[in-house]
Fold:
Amino acid sequence: MVSILEKIERLRKARGWSVNNLAMEAMLTQSTVNNLYMRNSEPKLSTLRAICNAFGITLAEFFAEEDETRDTDVAERLHRRIDALSPAQQAALLAFLNEE
Structure:
């Protein structure tokens, strides 16, 4: 299992953010974020919530297993595309999906 700090690190690097960028995006002080890394400690819940907000994810998404997160991403992308369809297109898609 990946530690909280390892997951933060992976998400930070995936965005190409420095530690200072993370602090700025999360509206935390640089010393708060630097201390997490220097002490290799887990953040307080309020700090983790701010970090998740910066990443644009919920705490539930942060703690979800990788496969669950990937499934959620696919579902969200599909939902956005379906919402963009006209009512007639949505009905046609539903009819298509209901065919066996």
